[in-house]
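Quick log. Single chain, no ligands specified.
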Amino acid sequence: MSAKTQHNNILLAVLGFVTVVVVVGLLGFLLLGRSPEIVQGEVEVSEYRISSKVPGRILELRVKEGDFVHVGDTLAILDAPEVQAKKTQAQSAEDAAAAMSDLAQAGARQEQISGAYQLWQQAKAGLEIAQKTYERVQRLYDEGVMTAQKRDEALASYKALQAQEKAAKSQYDMAVNGARLQEKRAAQAQVNRARGAVQEVQSYIRETVQVSNVEGEVSSIYPKVGELIGTGSPIMSISVMSDLWGTFNVREDQLNGMKIGDTFTAFVPAFNKDLKMKVFYIKDEGSYAVWKATKANGQYDLKTFEVKARPEESFEGLRPGMSLIIKK
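-> predicted structure:
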């Protein structure tokens, strides 16, 4: 075999190999096609945090993480001796205000009224004597047998006893009528104020027993028994398992016209099942979120949107944190 023939055979072999590679590549591209884009999200749930308006020490925890609780179930009990002390103070203030109000409403005691009446009658008797004395002295003065000085002394005594009788009558009337209307209203206002303070303290006492306002699963408990918590500090979190949704971060070129109300199918790896979901929330995540730069190619930047969707049907076992996969 000549060298030329051998060279041609090698060339043909190389060309044949290249042709086979190209054909296989084209067939693979045509058969397999473009690999699908994947958008991954996860299941989220509404959380309800339990906290108290009063500081205290955790006396008892009635539940543990993972328990399912119903509305009205007792979750935790706090020890707050300061609140109990304030309750005693408020109740004492209410009792004192009520006593003062009763005193104002009832007026003076019967003994005080009787004493005021006797003083008034005594003043009336003295006034009658002073009046008769003055009239007698005046007649004698008119007849010229009594000096002007004596007449003036009798007149001054008569006027003084007149004023004394009026004062005694006023004291008697005051004892009979009791306190003025304004004083009664002021006393009642003090009672209402003290009663409001008692109600406020009672509301704080109710805060020492924390009950559930929702149905759900206890997902986290933060303090331990015996630990001190401050005002508004979270005690535990309850996951409302009836309110689950999926959250996805979707690049805008992957939205494909998606809008609120649209439905799609997501794959749940934990169960190897598909789940039909309905979009209820779409929002731009802002410039701080993940984005794709395409300006280098003379195009534009792609932003990322947060998409939330709820399951269309019940899916037993679905839990927060599970992955959800969308294949585009």
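The chain has a mean pLDDT of 81.
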